[in-house]
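Minutes, project huddle
Topic: does the predicted pose make sense with magnesium ion bound?
PN asked that the exact inputs be recorded in the minutes so nobody has to dig through chat later. Recorded below.
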Amino acid sequence: MKTTISVIKADVGSVAGHGLAHPALLDKCEEFLAKAREEELLEDYYITNCGDDTELIMTHRQGEENEEIHELAFNAFMAATEVARELKLYGAGQDLLSDTFSGNIKGMGPGCAEMEFKERPSDPVVVFCMDKTEPGAFNMPLFKMFADPFNTAGLVIDPSLHNGYKFEIFDVMEHRKVTMSCPEEMYDALALLGSTGRYVIKRIIRKDDNEIAAAVSTERLNLMAGKYVGKDDPVAIVRAQSGFPAAGEVVEPFAFPHLVGGWMRGSHNGPLMPVGQKDAYPVRFDGPPRVIALGFQIADCKLIGPADMFDDPAYDPARKQAAEIADYMRRHGPFEPHRLPADEMEYTSLPGVLEKLESRFESME
Ligand code: F6R
Ligand code: MG
Ligand code: MG
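Predicted holo structure (tokens), as shared on screen:
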């Protein structure tokens, strides 16, 4: 019998401004998921939030892209939206692009990462949730986990990792995908993955036996909606140990607070700060972007945990460095590379400014 983990998330309202998902929203989602567990649709669940995003972490036997599971998440978010409206929370229902469910939650606003596997005798899994950034923010850390021997010692010294992994990479602009094999195609893969706004890792698979290793939510809400409706703050599921990177190798890339697109108005580069659950609340200039890591053991489809993995003093230097980089980046104000290049900004007044100035531009030829 196989186990499926579905992590489905949406921003349906927060306090104050685009800050923190209100506990009342999580409580409302809890009602729906508790009932679904009673009715045996779900085996288990854990509800959390990273900043203004509410995350539903669910285990079940229904497989990926299951209509009932997706509808459950959609209905929970719809009900939470009602609560958000009553409390006049900010951005109530902002990630729900439709008020009627149509078979699959993908394309309806919420982000979704799912994987199905046969449980090992002991199966550690890490769920990452990010706020104020985009799915491409996972490219560098996932690449390091599964392809960089300076991060993951096991790639060199553990025979069960030594053959490497395949990366399924989505081109979110052209809606196409390519699978690339590492280490052989590492340089070609990096040529794509460095363009974090366009090429994003969707899935990682162990080459030895095609076992699923990682899955990422790759929805691009702003592209789907055709206009700015919020950042697609992503989530990812990563399996650890015995043939996968060790739990410590899985969280190691985040000791470097790399620059990601997002932050204020989804239009600025800033450092990704790894934080414990209690600090998953981006405040300064709506940031800097945050990531939390929740470690679980999967036991007969039940979630044992979580361990709040970044609530570790060993990540204090990364947090301090992120705060310093945030300060440094902020001093650029409206200038690149703090502000994103025009074509990557979530919204811009540039076309209006250019239109206004059109008659005043003189040719220099
Ligand atoms: C970024 C984000 C916030 C908002 C900003 C402006 O993803 O959610 O930084 O973009 O607070 O929000 P509005 O336009 O709603 O006033
Ligand atoms: Mg919001
Ligand atoms: Mg958010």
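Observations noted during the meeting:
- Residues 40 and 299 are 16 Å apart (CA to CA).
- The chain has nine helices and 15 strands.
No decisions taken; revisit at the next huddle.
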